[in-house]
Amino acid sequence: MNQNIKNFFSESRYRWWLMASVIIIYLIIVAGAVVRMTGSGMGCPDWPKCFGYLIPPTEQSQIEFSPETPYKEGMVIIVDEELRVAKEDFFTGKTFNEENWEPYTKHDYSVFNVYHTWTEYINRLIGALGGLVVFIMFIFSLRYIKKRPKLTILSFVSVISMGVQAVIGKIVVDTNLSPALITFHMIAALLIVGLLIYLLHEVKPIDYRYKSNKTMVNAAAGLIVLTLIQVVMGTQVRQYIDEQVDLFGYPLSSAWLENGPLVFLIHRSYSILLVVLHGWFIYKAVHTFHHPKRSYTILAVLFVITILSGVFMNYLDFPFGSQAVHLVIASLILGMQFYLWMRLRVALK
How would you classify the pairing of strands 70-71 and 76-79? Predict the structure, then answer.
């Protein structure tokens, strides 16, 4: 490898693309939260295309039968409130011919809402962009393939993980938004974030301002576990809310948590424990070990926001955006906790 190539595949460029990868994954989480918040998950009933188009339709007429029109294989129309898929490339006559079409059998959702369609489509575009950014990050990781092969291997694992996420996204659509699969989709995204943050930590210089002991390291790890438990309970509450949406619809959000399940009550009260423990942890880090305040201030602010968004959902009948904010901030908290835990472990050594 000549010097110009070495300079191009520099460590700073790898770090830059790692940071870009972390940011884009969080943008994917934001986009997914917006999709779920707006009920747009089935805006595109097929995958990876949308109604069989690379660029989705903008009008209902585009997915209705049109006489004397060319259709491509895989294009989707709605006939008698059912999806029909073109069997092959053909040119229609003046009337609808059933022989040219086959029913879409993966699910029976056949509603077109232009806003939902484009919300879901943008979500997919961001996901595709995320895959590209992570792949470029992997390319720059090849500089370590001889001296630090673990970085290159884990960077490649990140690429594979993005592909798996895409497959999970397809299955989510094919199952008409199975709540369990949506939860798994979210947890997988958090695992990818964790892997990327680990890589970012591995290539960043050691910050000697971080001092530590076993108590702080164990406390940081414990907070991650406790927060994960809270997130899992939160996903159970969200699955319950999804069921309530099916029963009552979005306009009746005040009825979603009436006589809510026990997990909701535990989830709500458990947050008090997390606030107390994080308060102690931040105080010890800043005042006892004199860590840089910036990271801990961010963690504290994120916690305040997620608590407030939870309060708003519970007592103000789910104001617009509160669910998305609650989910995204919780994922940011986990990322920050993981980063601080790694910094504390290095300081302990």
Answer: unpaired
- Tell whether 92 and 103 lie within a shared domain: yes
Six token digits for residue 21: 């990868």
* Same domain as 187, residue 55: no
What's 66's domain CATH number?
A: 2.10.10
What are the CA-CA distances from residue 246 to residues 163, 250, 253 (Å)?
30, 9, 11
Residue partners of 16: CB distance under 8 A and separation at least 6: none
Dump the DSSP string for 7-72. Answer: HHT-HHHHHHHHHHHHHHHHHHHHHHHHHHHHT-TTSS-SSSSBTTBSS--SSGGGGS--TT-EE-
Among 204, 226, 249, the domain boundary falls at 204
CA angle (283, 266, 178) in 5-degree steps: 110
Mean pLDDT per 10-residue section of the chain, whose length is 349 residues: 66 92 94 85 90 92 91 92 92 90 88 93 95 96 92 96 93 84 86 93 77 89 93 81 66 57 85 93 88 88 90 76 85 93 84
Calpha distance 232→219 (Å, rounded): 20
CA dihedral over 188, 192, 195, 197, signed as positive or negative? negative
Judge whether 16 and 135 are in contact, CB under 8 Å.
no
pLDDT tens sequence across 318-342: 777 787 888 889 999 999 999 999 9
Same domain for 349 and 318, yes or no, is yes
- State the residue range of the domain holding 21: 1-43+114-204
Residues 88 and 102 both lie in one domain: yes
Asked whether 271 and 287 are in contact (CB, 8 A), the reply is no
93 and 131 both lie in a single domain: no
- How many independent structural domains does the chain possess? 3
pLDDT in tens, 83-142: 999 999 999 988 899 999 999 988 888 889 999 999 999 999 999 999 999 999 999 999
CA–CA dist 197, 216 (Å, integer): 20
Instruction: Give the residue from 165, 180, 204 where a domain finishes.
Output: 204
- Cα angle, residue 130 at apex, residues 341 and 313 outer, rounded to 5°: 65
